[in-house]
Design goal:
The complex is a heterodimer of chains A (about 110) and B (about 110). Chain A contains no helices and eleven strands. In chain A, a hairpin with a 3-residue loop joins strand 4 and strand 5. Chain A is globular, with a radius of gyration of 13 Å. Chain A is about 0% helix and about 50% strand. Chain A is an all-beta fold and about 110 residues long. In chain A, the strands form two sheets. In chain A, strands 2, 4, 5, 6, 9, 10 and 11 form a seven-stranded mixed beta sheet that branches. Chain A starts with a strand and ends with a strand. Chain B contains no helices and eleven strands. With about 110 residues, chain B is mainly beta. The chains are: A mainly beta (about 110), B mainly beta (about 110). Chains A and B meet through strand 4, strand 5 and strand 10 of A and strand 4, strand 5, strand 9 and strand 10 of B.
């Protein structure tokens, strides 16, 4: 089954404790992206990757890091989480960027206290 | 300032009637537009898209209309069904790698 998986689905952590949210897709997609969803703001793009070893900032990259060492994986790293990073996070992938719909993972709800 | 706006946070429609969801954008460089549907506790799923070279795209009960001069697009669902109750996001791209999403409209289809 074609899918995007994220782990963990739920995470409660404390300020400053490094964490990684994993994202994996099995569709051989070149393009992957991370979003955060906040009430009234919709989905905002954090980082995206056009292919292996190619990443770039989206609209809200501050406080986040990503890596793309393999085509299927695109982890999101919070080196020192803060309460304003409490949000619902979605990973997405698509065949390419322009002109293709994205497939989204189920989401990771992160709470930073 | 939001580049993609969905000014109606919520919409209620009777089953069988037409649902019209609206989206406005400010960036004239946007040339590809998509609608996604999102159920609670799930990720968004793609619904329908339209390129700026078209003014209409239809897929079954779903039709998207694009008015470039007004920087406005709308999603029509006919007939509406209770299973259509979800949050709908409008998204836009300038043909590059960036996607900008609107804040979403919660559609409730009443039986």
């Amino acid at each position: 089954e074609a899918q995007v998986t994220q782990n963990p689905r739920y995470l409660i952590t404390v300020t400053g404790k490094k964490l990684t949210v994993t994202c994996s897709q099995n569709m051989n997609h070149e393009y992957m992206s991370w979003y955060r969803q906040d009430p009234g703001l919709g989905l905002r793009q954090i980082y995206y990757s056009m292919n292996v070893e190619v990443t770039d900032k989206g609209d809200v990259p501050e406080g986040y890091k990503v890596s793309r060492k393999e085509k299927r994986n695109f982890p999101l790293i919070l080196e020192s989480p803060s309460p304003n990073q409490t949000s619902l996070y979605f990973c997405a992938s698509s065949l390419s960027a322009a002109g293709y719909e994205q497939y989204f993972g189920p989401g990771t709800r992160l709470t930073v206290t | 300032d939001q580049q993609v706006k969905q000014n109606s946070p919520s919409l209620s429609v009777q089953e069988g009637r037409i649902s019209i969801l609206n989206c406005d954008y400010t960036n004239s460089m946007f040339d590809y537009f998509l609608w996604y549907k999102k159920y609670p506790a799930e990720g968004p799923t793609f619904l329908i898209s339209i390129s700026s070279i078209k003014d209409k795209n239809e897929d079954g009960r779903f039709t998207v209309f694009l008015n470039k001069s007004a920087k406005h697009l709308s999603l029509h669902i006919v007939p509406s069904q209770p299973g259509d109750s979800a949050v709908y996001f409008c998204a836009a791209s300038d043909g590059g790698q960036n996607f900008v999403f609107g804040p979403g409209t919660r559609l409730s289809v009443l039986p």
